[in-house]
Write a structure and sequence with these properties.
The complex is a heterodimer of chains A (about 270) and B (about 150). Chain A is α/β, with parallel strands linked by helices. Helix content of chain A is about 20%, strand content about 30%. Chain A has a six-stranded antiparallel beta sheet. In chain A, strand 10, helix 4 and strand 11 form a beta-alpha-beta unit. By secondary structure, chain B is α+β, with helices and mostly antiparallel strands. A four-stranded antiparallel beta sheet of chain B has the order 1-8-3-6. In chain B, a hairpin with a 2-residue loop joins strand 4 and strand 5. In chain B, helix 3 packs across helix 4. The radius of gyration of chain B is 16 Å and the shape is globular. Classes of the chains: A alpha/beta (about 270), B alpha+beta (about 150). At the A-B interface, helix 4 of A face strand 5 and helix 4 of B.
Chain lengths: ~270, ~150
């Protein structure tokens, strides 16, 4: 294990590799100190010196913990500052924090992954772990929705997954021109064309509105709430459940989440004030 | 006729319909095929047919003068096209076969006659069309929210 230096003390890490995914989305890889490990679905707090800190999910392969990977969209002050950095820049990194996708517990079951937009990034470690242990799972289905064909992230990897005979990948976009041959519409429409069983383990990540629609559709198809996990996003500050910024009813998203089983948080997803 | 009745029964839109109702609708139905790129419906056309898609996909698109159309949604096997059967009006979008499409075409005027003759059938078809319309409306609203931005 890595020596604990205190939950608030970031460790300096250098960006070893920077990859442009989309105009506003980029991936940074860091070489991690010995002993670093994470579980799929966990996040780190990334600190840009003099600017601030932001919670970002880990998008790398859990089988390669020596290489920490984060895929980030430039939308706020800190993430825009991150976008201006490049290979060789040094960041402060705290973590990993939070709960994980129950990849181990899902062994023996069919696994369905539903991702929307950049929601594919926190799910990528879970997908990689499932595929690395493919024989331990039943049917593996990945449903991915994006805004347009030009806004698909991890495009090369999507093509690799689509090329496998033991995975079903369906991609849908909200809008497209005639040169797109895939389906057009919302991600929940993909559920019409794939088998959905009550004992599937479903991992869901994307904009909260999309997740609410998707959980409703899954429940209509007989998938119980205790078979659906989703990753929530809230304003996280301390990362260890002390400051209260990310409080959701009686839980702290940074500590008890970000991955929750639906039956544990479903009532709160409908409360407007939360 | 027997074959057509079987095909009608097999489509999810009509699944579970009382056998006498399916038999009653056979005279309104015919099998149709569209080549890739062919239009099932064009903006401004009078919607006189309800299509039940059996094979292939159809793109629902908004034509633009001098530009590529905007593709709004694709529909496929099991889907229904022409839900304005209930309130006939001119089509407001283009519907184009993206690949070879096989569908059942139900003549709207014939359907209206049958639905008037047998109100139970009329009620069932109307409810199913409303359900499909609601589902499409919900999807369109979600799409309109542009949540991935």
């Amino acid at each position: 294990m890595m020596p604990v230096v205190g939950p608030y003390v970031p460790r300096a890490m250098t960006i070893a590799r920077a990859t442009r995914e989309l105009a506003d989305v980029f991936t940074y890889s860091f070489d991690t100190p010995a002993g670093f490990a994470f579980r799929p679905g966990q996040f780190n707090m990334l600190y840009v010196h003099g600017i601030g800190e932001v919670a970002i999910s880990i998008s790398g392969d859990p089988a390669e913990p020596q290489r920490l990977v984060h895929t980030i969209r430039a939308v706020g002050t800190v993430t825009r500052a991150l976008d201006h950095l490049g290979e060789g820049s040094v960041l402060g990194v705290r973590g990993p924090y939070g709960s994980a996708w129950p990849v181990e517990d899902a062994k023996g079951r069919d696994v369905m992954v539903i991702a929307g937009g950049l929601g594919l990034a926190p799910l990528r470690p879970a997908i990689l772990q499932v595929l690395a242990n493919r024989a331990d799972y039943g049917r593996v289905t990945i449903l991915y929705g994006a805004r347009s064909p030009s806004e698909l992230v991890f495009r090369e990897e999507l093509q690799r997954w689509r090329g496998r005979f033991d995975v079903r990948l369906e991609v849908i976009v909200d809008h497209a021109s005639r040169d797109w041959f895939g389906p057009i519409g919302v991600v929940t429409k993909l559920l019409d064309g794939v088998p959905v069983e009550p004992d599937d383990a479903v991992f869901l990540c994307g904009p909260e509105i999309m997740m609410r629609f998707a959980t409703r559709e899954l429940e209509q198809r007989g998938v119980p709430r205790d078979a659906i996990w989703l990753s929530l996003e809230r304003s996280m500050k301390c990362g260890v459940g002390l400051c209260g910024h990310c409080q959701l009813a009686g839980s702290f998203v940074c500590k008890d989440g970000p991955v929750y089983r639906l039956d544990r948080i479903a009532p709160y997803l409908q409360v407007r004030e939360l | 006729m027997d074959d057509l009745e079987g095909v009608l029964k097999a489509h999810s839109f009509l699944a579970g319909l009382a056998p006498e109702h399916t038999a009653f609708l056979v005279s309104c139905a015919k099998n149709v095929r569209f080549r890739p790129g062919e239009f099932l419906m064009r903006e401004g056309d009078r919607e006189d047919t309800l299509y039940l898609i059996r094979q292939g996909t159809v793109t629902i698109e908004m034509p633009r003068l001098g530009g590529e159309p905007i593709c709004l949604e694709t529909i496929g096997p099991g889907d229904v096209l022409g839900v304005s059967l209930l309130t006939p009006r001119a089509a407001h979008l283009d519907c184009r076969a993206r690949e070879a499409v096989v569908a059942l075409a139900l003549d709207n005027a014939c359907m209206h006659r049958k639905m008037d003759e047998d109100p139970r059938l009329g009620y069932t078809i109307s409810m199913r069309l409303l359900e499909r319309t609601y589902e499409r409306l919900a999807r369109a609203r979600l799409q309109h929210l542009d949540v991935y931005r």
